[in-house]
TrEMBL record:
Family: Belongs to the FGGY kinase family.
Cross-referenced Pfam families: FGGY_C (PF02782), FGGY_N (PF00370)
Protein name: Xylulose kinase
UniProt key word Transmembrane: no
Carbohydrate kinase FGGY N-terminal domain mapped to chain residues: 12-289
Reactions that this protein is recorded to catalyse: D-xylulose + ATP = D-xylulose 5-phosphate + ADP + H(+)
Domain of life the protein comes from: Eukaryota
Recorded name of the encoding gene: LOC107800890
Keywords carried by this UniProt record: ATP-binding, Carbohydrate metabolism, Kinase, Nucleotide-binding, Transferase, Xylose metabolism
Protein source organism: Nicotiana tabacum
Enzyme Commission (EC) number: 2.7.1.17
Entry's Gene Ontology cellular component terms: cytosol
């Protein structure tokens, strides 16, 4: 590819360290996938006894963590599998980057830098890093135990809107700053015995360079700690979070920067080329943005995973009390805007198990045999504490009598305990996407979008994609690789390598702009908007849903 200047025999490796699995994608110089592997934590590392990749603390409400060593063991396992199953020649890989579940944090014990820098290639990483952490449990994005810390941080900096102006988000329980403050308050000995705090992304990059990797600007914005305009740690928020924190966080770096050369451990053990570059890792959603080639403000992406996210691009940072703003990982001039919903695939799976015989085929049949608008049945399903809206665990079902879709006049609403099975299935899917559309519009995202690109596991479900198209009033596209995060990480590895070679930032689109249809990045149309009258009726149903949602927040909300 002439525009990309990538060496024709080169390979680019991208990882995605997510909640439930570790994935790897390898791209060639033409940006086509040549290898991919996946390690599922629960099934393949069952000795850690995780459920969905996590531990739910039975004693502390909302506390959810993952074993740090499990991520290391998965990393070793996937490298072995790439070598044996995929017959990958690591010597041809010229750059590696990665994606980590956002907000999760790792606590390196005092003295661990020396361990990292002197790894013995004859021994496993797990064996050598077993004692390198001041706590072996990493708080992750699903954690909601830090409400008090969120309130305290917001109060200390002058309120929620001021924190949003400074950092891109008001305080959220899953964000790393509140997590660090809680650790400092409840386990001060752990905090004081910590020399470096990494995000999941910078933690994995640290393994690869044999030293502490910087946190990148984009993932750093998901901590409630970084001044989003200056791209530097905010002294105001650091002071409100914990003492001596700046030294424990290290420096920040652009997402396209080189974190360092690959450590000799991987050269000797796996035969990587000693000149292989490790490009800064970033968060999973930012990497998905790269993998979906989202580069137009009118585009919208919907990621359907353990959590569901809706994200797009904007030129400006406008403070808001909901949603998030991050620096765009592949463009130094724009921002990424995002809405996050904790109850994604796991909530859909719960309804599948309860009402669809634990079968996605039955789930889809129920979806297809029920009419759009579900006869006025609206469901709110929160298996875990929800982020948007801020509601606790609970299930709420309503029937709207006399609802026809053209008006809310004369509607009688009453709450029920349960729907019939097919209606339950439609209620969760319709409800989730009505909520997403409403919050996206309230946040200022385009309505209707020019196009929607869907990714994540559920993007393979054509019934769900058709419903998204009808609710949002926009055509829906999908990408060749459902895991856009590891694909985006491999693309970012190539982009970082190219920026380093040129000695300055270059547009990522220059690598694929003229040859998109010949790469693994190409999107295909999966669902069309269809009946505009139905789109209008869904807009009316959305208004009623938000009216009920606002009442629930007023009655039960945590904020």
């Amino acid at each position: 590819m002439a525009d990309s200047s990538l060496p024709q025999d080169a390979l680019f490796l991208g990882f995605d360290s997510s909640t439930q699995s570790l994935k790897a994608t390898v791209l060639d110089a033409n940006l086509n996938i040549v290898a991919a592997e996946l390690i599922n934590f629960d099934s393949e590392l069952s000795h850690y006894k995780t459920e969905g990749g996590v531990y739910r603390d039975p004693l502390v409400n909302g506390r959810i963590v993952s074993p740090t060593l499990m991520w290391i063991e998965a990393f070793e396992l996937i490298l072995q599998r790439l070598e044996k199953s995929s017959k990958l020649d690591f010597g041809k890989i010229v750059a590696v980057s990665g994606s980590g579940q956002q907000h999760g944090s790792v606590y390196w014990k005092n003295g661990s830098a020396a361990i990292l820098s002197s790894l013995d290639s004859k021994k496993s990483l797990v064996e050598q890093l077993n004692d390198a952490f001041s706590t072996k449990e990493s708080p992750i994005w699903m954690d909601s135990s830090t409400t008090e810390q969120c309130k305290a941080i917001e109060e200390a900096v002058g309120g929620a809107m001021e924190l949003s102006r400074l950092t891109g988000s008001c305080a959220y329980e899953r964000f790393t700053g509140p997590q660090i403050r809680r650790l400092f308050e409840t386990q001060p000995e752990v905090y004081h015995n910590t020399e470096r705090i990494s995000l999941v992304s910078s933690f994995m990059a640290s393994l690869l360079i044999g030293g502490y990797a910087s946190i990148d600007h984009t993932d750093g914005a998901g901590m409630n700690l970084m001044d989003i305009k200056l791209r530097a740690w905010s002294e105001t928020v650091l002071k409100a979070t914990a003492p001596g924190l700046k030294e424990k966080l290290g420096k920040l770096a652009p997402a396209h920067a080189v974190a360092g050369p690959i450590a000799s451990y991987f050269v000797e053990r796996y035969h990587f080329n000693k000149d292989c570059l490790i490009i800064q890792w970033s968060g999973d959603n930012p990497n998905s943005l790269a993998g979906l080639t989202l580069n137009t403000p009118g585009d919208l992406a919907i990621s359907l995973g353990t959590s569901d996210t809706v994200f797009g691009i904007t030129k400006d940072h406008n403070p808001s009390l909901e949603g998030h703003v991050f620096p765009n990982p592949v463009d130094t001039e724009s921002y990424m805007v995002m809405l996050c919903y904790k109850n994604g695939s796991l909530a859909r799976e719960d309804i599948r198990n309860l009402y669809a015989e634990k079968s996605w085929d039955v789930f889809n049949k129920h979806l297809q045999q029920t009419p759009p608008l579900n006869g006025g049945r609206l469901g709110f399903y929160y298996k875990d504490f929800e982020i948007l809206p801020p509601l606790p665990v609970g299930f709420h079902r309503y029937i709207l009598e006399n609802f026809r879709g053209d008006s809310l006049d004369g509607i009688k609403e009453h709450e029920v305990q349960e729907f019939d099975s097919p209606s339950e299935v439609r209620a969760i899917v319709e409800g989730q996407f009505l909520s997403k559309r409403a919050h996206a519009e309230r946040f200022g995202m385009p309505s209707p979008p020019k196009r929607i690109i869907a990714t994540g596991g559920a993007s393979a479900n054509s019934s769900i994609l058709s419903l998204i198209a009808s609710i949002f009033g926009s055509d829906v596209y999908t990408v060749q690789q459902p895991d856009s995060a590891s694909l985006g990480a491999a693309l970012r590895a190539a982009h970082g390598w190219l920026c380093n070679k040129k000695g300055n930032f270059v547009s990522i689109s220059s690598m694929y702009m003229d040859n998109m249809d010949k790469t693994s990045l190409n999107c295909k149309l999966a669902a069309t908007t269809g009946d505009q009258k139905l789109v209008a009726k869904y807009a009316m149903l959305m208004k009623k849903r938000i009216e009920i949602e606002n009442r629930l927040v007023k009655k039960l909300g945590r904020l």
